[in-house]
């Protein structure tokens, strides 16, 4: 024991000495804990910022997005006119068919949900015979092209007569019926005669899931112009066979307009149609979960590029 302190505890030196040592320790401890709190606050706010940025990227990947057709609404008819691009000028024109009026339409009243389900079952049956290793498989009903692994096979050649055990005449009758009604809808919306437009190839079922792409054939999400991608298309139509949010997530169709994207949310029985030039640049969002089914049925004004309806051979 320090006697000088015991008796003169109030003497400044000792008093200060006795108080100073624990005080310095407490200050240091206080500074340490302040540093720790600052570190935690910094980490938390960085995490919040990163999540906010990723969220905004996912929600509006490319700026403002407007929903043209919500999955939960049943649309009678929606038509949006857009100015035609000059793409049609560089091709032979077929008056009364080649687009002078351009735009996009969506209807939920031309094909019933039940019909869409029947067509989906045809797609499931056909695609179950093959399937891409990546996330996107197709089955072209006209040519018989079917994704298998990293390639395609010709279903009709591969199965020969046995194909009659997979598809029935009613399946093809349903396709014809649906194709006819869609053709009529398009001709009315664009004010052209139905007999001036012809079914064109490819006409195919698509099945998309979230499996990672293995070849470029699986990369369905790139922005594109159908007239450029498929050549003969003047009018594109898509019939959706499954429901956004119910059967799959992601996978919305996006018209990429300057200033604001416009989305179509797939819904079984929904027909989306549009002129195939660059006035309708579009893409499909990556499917994040589940399986998305659709069928593409498109038309040309050039009779030389026309095809007959697919038949059971
Ligand atoms: O499935 C879709 O929604 C669109 C597919 C598409 O753009 C295409 O096949 O060219
Ligand atoms: Fe397309």
From TrEMBL:
Pfam families: 2OG-FeII_Oxy_3. Residues 201-303 form the Fe2OG dioxygenase domain. InterPro entries: OGFOD3, Oxoglu/Fe-dep_dioxygenase_dom, Pro_4_hyd_alph, Pro_4_hyd_alph_FE2OG_OXY. Keywords: Dioxygenase, Iron, Metal-binding, Oxidoreductase. The keyword Metal-binding applies. One of its GO terms (molecular function) is oxidoreductase activity, acting on paired donors, with incorporation or reduction of molecular oxygen. GO terms for cellular component: membrane. Signal peptide: none annotated. Its cofactor is L-ascorbate. It comes from the Eukaryota. PANTHER family: 2-OXOGLUTARATE AND IRON-DEPENDENT OXYGENASE DOMAIN-CONTAINING PROTEIN 3, PROLYL HYDROXYLASE-RELATED. This is 2-oxoglutarate and iron dependent oxygenase domain containing 3. The gene is OGFOD3.
């Amino acid at each position: 024991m320090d006697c000088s302190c015991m008796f003169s505890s109030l003497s400044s030196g000792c008093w200060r000495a006795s108080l100073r040592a624990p005080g310095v320790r407490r200050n240091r401890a206080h500074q340490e804990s302040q540093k720790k709190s600052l570190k935690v606050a910094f980490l938390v706010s960085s995490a919040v910022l990163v999540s906010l940025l990723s969220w905004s990227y996912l929600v509006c990947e490319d700026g403002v997005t407007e929903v043209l057709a919500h999955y939960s609404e049943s649309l009678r008819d929606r038509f949006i006119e857009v100015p035609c691009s000059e793409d049609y000028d560089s091709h032979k024109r077929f008056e009364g068919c080649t687009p002078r009026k351009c735009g996009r339409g969506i209807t939920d009243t031309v094909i019933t949900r039940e019909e869409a389900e029947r067509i989906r079952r045809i797609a499931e049956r056909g695609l179950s015979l093959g399937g891409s290793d990546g996330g996107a498989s197709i089955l072209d009903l006209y040519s018989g092209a079917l994704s298998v692994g990293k390639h395609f096979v010709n279903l009709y050649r591969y199965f020969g007569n046995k194909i009659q055990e997979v598809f029935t005449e009613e399946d093809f009758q349903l396709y014809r019926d649906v194709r006819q009604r869609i053709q009529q809808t398009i001709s009315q919306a664009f004010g052209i005669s139905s007999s001036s437009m012809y079914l064109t190839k490819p006409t195919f079922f698509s099945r998309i899931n979230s499996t990672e792409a293995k070849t470029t054939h699986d990369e369905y999400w790139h922005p594109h112009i159908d007239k450029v991608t498929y050549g003969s298309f003047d009018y594109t139509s898509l019939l959706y066979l499954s429901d956004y949010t119910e059967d799959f997530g992601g996978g919305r169709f996006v018209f990429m307009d300057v200033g604001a994207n416009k989305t179509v949310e797939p819904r079984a029985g929904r027909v989306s149609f549009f002129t195939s030039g660059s006035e309708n640049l579009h893409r499909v969002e990556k499917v994040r979960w589940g399986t998305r089914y659709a069928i593409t049925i498109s038309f040309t004004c050039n009779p030389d590029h026309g095809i007959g309806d697919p038949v059971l051979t």
